[in-house]
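During the reporting period the student researcher (J.K.) took over the structure-prediction task from the postdoctoral fellow and processed the backlog of single-chain submissions. One of the processed entries is reproduced below for the supervisory committee.
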Amino acid sequence: MTNEQLMLLLNNYDVDRPELTFLRHNENRTYRVQDSAGKQYLLRIHDPFVQEMKGLQHTEAGVLAELDMLEQWGQWYQDEVQKPVRNQSGQLVTTFEGDGYKLNASLLTWMEGRDLTKEDTQDAEVIKKLGTHMSELHSFFSQYNPVGMEARPSQGKAYNERMAQVIYSGVPQGLFTFADAVIIDDTLRLINSRLSDEGENEGPDLIHGDVGLGNAILTANGDLRFIDFGFYGKGYAQTDVAMGALMLPSDRRDAFLEAYYGGKGCSENELLQLEGFMLAAIIGFYVFQFGNEKMHDWMRERMPILCAERCKPFLRGERILYQ
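J.K. obtained the following structure tokens:
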């Protein structure tokens, strides 16, 4: 997009003499915006780099559902979190013509800080903040009355079934062997068999859906905050918990779970489900990157390792939380 197009877009907001800095183009095109007073914002153009990444979350209704949640989250949470900025018409989503087709855009407040790093995950205080903040987010979700969920992605039983089919479709392309695809299928079937029917195929809870080092930041005040709710939707709360555990060294995961559960830890059944969600999160990464040819060699190399070192032990009933 040209700078002129972006400036016309920003004319829809009360931002005086904005200066833009391009950040990245992945799930969205993102820019840091600074006004004449030095206040900063995050501008998102909901247009993924690879069209295969495009989903419900990029539609106008999907973006609106995410922003409604973020606005309510900002009002509910006592401390600062990233919040949407309404345009001059009072709308959360701004639609415009760009590159020959209709695009959706949103503006968020800026969270000053830095991405979480692997080094941070050795810090006991950071781990405690991670578990506590996730618990706070899920507490908000439990009382929030969501809107537009039909336009949001979900990560329940049906999602797991679709992931298996995507992995099978990679066999003719030479991405995966048929034997490995069967192991993934068996793994996802076992995961689903342990899930309740509550929430039907979408899952009973609201979730962030994409917890990772790049979507958790340490703020300038030393707080931990989640950002990038692009995969917010229905699912199981333990999906987020599993993703949080995967961020950490195996010997730090118990401390994270204690912070999340308020010191009481997990039951045996919760641990079994948690380990399944950890594998589902890893498989989900493969599926999300399926259309990205730059990742194909990595997938060919890593899938046999995932099957041998994680999935097979899981299918045999062995504990994988501490691997």
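The committee noted the following: The mean pLDDT is 93.
J.K. will present the remaining backlog at the next meeting.
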